[in-house]
Specification:
single chain, 3 helices, globular, about 35% strand, alpha+beta, 7-stranded antiparallel sheet
Length: about 150
């Protein structure tokens, strides 16, 4: 990808032009980041109190018993979002869906173990181990360039 920056003194509103032969996931991600309207922080609920949490600190988000839970280190926070809403908001922060009920932060992944047939084992930097469901294996391989 080529990047060109042009600085003009009279310019008061920055303008970005993307020239490409086709739409790709990386171009979509760049557009989402540039047009980002999502907040930098989320509200997480724990022990009857709301706490402000940063998407960068979240290891994974999963749905269980109708609740959406964000994991930060050894703490779990309830989010007042559906999993698909969290996926939409956090996609620009490198979150990816690995199953119908779970998202992981790619920046918090230690390794992907592909030795199991038909699935991928995901080891997180906090020691948590989770699995990519067969339905999402192709998507993860595309993201990893495999």
């Amino acid at each position: 990808m080529q990047i060109e920056l042009k600085i003009e003194e009279g310019c008061t509103d920055p303008k970005v032009i993307i020239i490409t032969d086709r739409m790709t996931d990386s171009i979509n991600r760049a557009i989402n980041i540039l047009s980002e309207n999502t907040p930098e922080m989320l509200a997480g609920f724990r022990d009857d109190a709301a706490e402000v949490i940063s998407p960068h600190d979240i290891f994974r988000i999963y749905a269980c018993d109708g609740k959406t839970i964000a994991v930060i280190n050894d703490k779990e926070y309830y989010l007042r979002l559906r999993l698909y809403e969290a996926e939409e908001k956090l996609g620009v922060y490198d979150f990816v869906r690995i199953s119908n009920s779970e998202l992981v932060n790619l920046k918090k992944v230690k390794k992907f173990d592909m030795s199991l047939s038909g699935t991928i084992c995901v080891s997180m930097t906090d020691g948590t181990v989770t699995y990519v469901s067969r339905r999402y294996v192709k998507k993860i391989k595309q993201i990893l360039g495999i």
